[in-house]
Amino acid sequence: MAKHTTYIMSEDARTQAEFYIHAFGGELQSVMTHGEQMPDAKEELKDKVLNLSFVAAGVNFLMCDNFFGPVSYGNSLHLVMEFDTEAEAHEAFTKLSEGGQVNHPLERAFWGPLFGQIQDKFGVLWMITTATETN
User: Which segments constitute the PhnB-like domain (predicted)?
Assistant: First the structure.
């Protein structure tokens, strides 16, 4: 058995994590910088995030500042957030789309639940959905 954790490379992990906490609700768990963890860190890296942990909508996420070069996102990976209620899905979709691009509006899908796609202002692709109703 495995445990999946999303790890996001970021240009600014603190700001991006705050945005997701705002969109989904949650809290910052911990932040470690290069300067705190690596005594011989280069001056320009001392304040960069080495590891950041947060919980949003009950899901654990990890992040760090990518210091090897610019972050680039492709279209082959989407983060999916499934909500129990339509109200939760609409609220998260609205907040997550702030400054981003709605690729597919949040609406009832032919298979039943709400479904929508967003590329957020950081370039991350998301699918927002609601739980499938069972009869």
Answer: 9-129
Topology classification of domain 79-130 = 3.30.720
Query: Is 52 within 8 Å of 64 (Cβ atoms)?
Result: yes
Domain extent listing, the chain: 6-65, 79-130
- What's the pLDDT tens digit per position in 87-132? 999 999 999 999 999 999 999 998 889 999 999 999 999 999 998 7
* CATH topology (fold) of 6-65: 3.30.720
Residue 39 to residues 10, 35, 44, 63, 68, Cα–Cα distance (Å):
23, 6, 13, 21, 19
Mean pLDDT score across all residues of the chain = 92
